[in-house]
Amino acid sequence: MAEDNAAAQEQQARFIIQKIYTKDISFETPNSPAIFREEWKPTLDLQLGTEHEKIDEENHEIVLVVTVTARVNDKVAFIAEVKQAGIFTLAGYSDDEMGPLIGSYCPNTVFPFAREVVADMVTKGGFPQLVLAPVNFDAVYKRKLDSMAQMREQSAGNPEQTH
């Protein structure tokens, strides 16, 4: 009987990719054309973030925000930002399962599309090809959870003082 319940739960759980799309793109070269005369030895800063919106009971929009800033000799060569989104049907999962799906699995699903958009923008912007390395979204999600837990502990340990 317990096996039947577990099998029924597994059958009810659904993960469906409804749509993958680019929600927003931005590319800036604030120091062009002078930056093209510099020796190309950039330092890169990669920032990742996620946004989540529950569309209805089963459908969720997950947006991966990727921002890459390249600097040469302390001058900004380019800033490339893409908001790559997906609409996912996530049904039949427990609250404990939803966190990793929304915080790790879905961003991991849309990341290759974001990487392609960034590479295309950078090349069309006149710079050498940039291929972003794979990202361990499980580790990113765990760091976020750890950070949130630490903030909760700090706020619990430091009650607000009234004057």
Automatic annotation (TrEMBL):
One of its GO terms (molecular function) is unfolded protein binding. It is found in: Cytoplasm. One of its GO terms (biological process) is protein folding. The keyword Protein transport applies. Keywords: Chaperone, Cytoplasm, Protein transport, Translocation, Transport. One of its GO terms (cellular component) is cytoplasm. InterPro entries: SecB, SecB-like_sf. Pfam families: SecB. One of the proteins required for the normal export of preproteins out of the cell cytoplasm. It is a molecular chaperone that binds to a subset of precursor proteins, maintaining them in a translocation-competent state. It also specifically binds to its receptor SecA. Belongs to the SecB family. Homotetramer, a dimer of dimers. One homotetramer interacts with 1 SecA dimer. This is Protein-export protein SecB. The lineage of its organism: Bacteria, Pseudomonadati, Pseudomonadota, Gammaproteobacteria, Thiotrichales.
